[in-house]
Amino acid sequence: QVQLVESGGGSVQAGGSLRLSCAASRSAYNRYCMAWFRQPLGKEREGVAYIDKSGSSTYAGSLKGRFTISKDNAKNTLYLQMNGLKPDDTAMYYCAAGNYCSNRWTLYNYWGQGTQVTVSS
Hints:
0% of the residues lie in helices and 49% in strands. By secondary structure, the chain is mainly beta.
C-alpha cells in the first residue's frame, strides 16, 4: 500500500502562485505513474498532469505553461507548481499513483485526501 498526503493548498488572488506537495509513505515514484487531479465543487474530477516512471510529464489542455509537475524520488514527494492562477482553477486537488499513466482517474490505485485551492478574482 502507498499512502499519499497532499499539502500546500490555500486561498490566493487571481494571478498568484501556489506549490502543492504530495508526500508518499514509501518510495513509489520510480515504480508508479504519479498524477494530479482536481475536482471543482459540483463538477467531475479532471486530470491536471501526470509524470511517468522515467520522469516524462504530460499536461491537460491549456494548463501546460502555467502548471508544472515534478517529483523528488529521494524525498518521496510529488509537486505541482501553479502559476498565473485563475478563478476557474478553484478546486480540490488530489495526488494519485497507479500502474498506468492516464488522465482518467479510474486507472489510479492510490489517492491522497486532497488539498483545497481557492482563487479569488
